[in-house]
Amino acid sequence: MSKKDIAWSDLGFGYIKTDKRYVSNFKDGKWDDGTLTDDDMIIMSECAGVLQYAQTVFEGLKAYETKDGKIVTFRPDLNADRMIDSAKRLEMPPFPKGRFIDAVKQVVDANRDYVPPYGSGATLYIRPYMFGINPVIGVKPADDYQFRIFATPVGPYFKGGAKPITVKISDFDRAAPKGTGNIKAGLNYAMSLHAIVTAHNEGFAENIYLDSATRTKIEETGGANIIFVDADGNIVIPKSDSILPSITRRSLAIVAEKYLGLKVDQREVTLSEVMSGQFKECGLCGTAAVISPVGRINDHGKEFTFEAGMESMGKVTQKLYDTLTGIQMGTIEAPEGWIYEI
Ligand SMILES: *Cc1c(COP(=O)(O)O)cnc(C)c1O
Questions:
Q1: Closest atom of ligand 1 relative to the 222 alpha carbon
Q2: Can you tell me which atom of ligand 1 is nearest the CA of 251?
Q3: CATH fold label, 8-156
Q4: Distance from Cα 78 to the centre of ligand 1, integer Å
Q5: Is there a contact between 226 and 218 (Cβ–Cβ < 8 Å)?
Q6: How many Å lie between the centroid of ligand 1 and the Cα of residue 184?
Q7: Which entry of 184, 217, 280, 319 is annotated as an active-site residue?
Q8: What secondary structure does DSSP assign to 87-102, as a single string?
Q9: Is the pTM of this model over 0.70?
Q10: CB atoms within 10 A of CB 64
């Protein structure tokens, strides 16, 4: 097999149709055997549950080539677990963990030629998702579901270096205290679109959402968890039941403790301590960027610029970034069970 003729480094974060995708259907109370298919189209009832009441959850992970030419994914078992949690919260039948991991492997293997070469910075983005597919008009969970995984090559997140961004404190809420903020559901993104378009129109790269009950505590952005570095160089992670448990952030916490010897404190973080300069560095964590440095926060016109400034990542953020990407790319030894070879 040979790699597709794609300008890997020029790729953005967009959809490109690849050769194969995985489909399994839930009908009569059970999942069928599932299969790979060429067919990228979905035909469903005009009244499908997903179209009427947004009964859908998803995941996101990457496959990539390591330095020694292996194709791997990073901790797909945690994506499987999280999708089970998401499905249960929306009254959907969980897709079994073992089958999820196997399906990820099948999709990556069938699209090996689309896995960008080591060093290009590009990756194969993998999107598992499931949705209610039978007609639902009275409000209730669907009876039938479809689980799918497709893969699409995406470009390097940082083209020409990781420049710190300016983020605003949003006037909108992302998640209610006992809501769905802690699961990966499409509905959380639908309601964030107006907030992100508003932020972009005002010249900000992202929104930081506060806890919706008191609007005093830091939660996360629309699609990434937040970490801070305190004055002693240790890591502080905001704690809240309505934050989506990012696999990148949980992995970075382990990297910080086990590889860099830093302390990691997960606790409530108030907006006022951030704006009064308690932290030296700030980063946004997620699969796409690993860590994206935040240089400045704007709270209704009041600005705070982190010590690392607007030109480059802070020192600790950079170490975390280098260590985790080194683990992912096979240049630093990974903890047991983190890397799945395809
Ligand atoms: C997916 C997601 C993240 C990042 O999670 P990773 O597992 O690290 O990719 C963070 N916040 C939200 C709201 C998300 O949907």
A1: 13
A2: 8
A3: D-amino Acid Aminotransferase; Chain A, domain 1 (3.30.470)
A4: 12
A5: yes
A6: 8
A7: 184
A8: HHHTT-PPPPHHHHHH
A9: yes
A10: 24
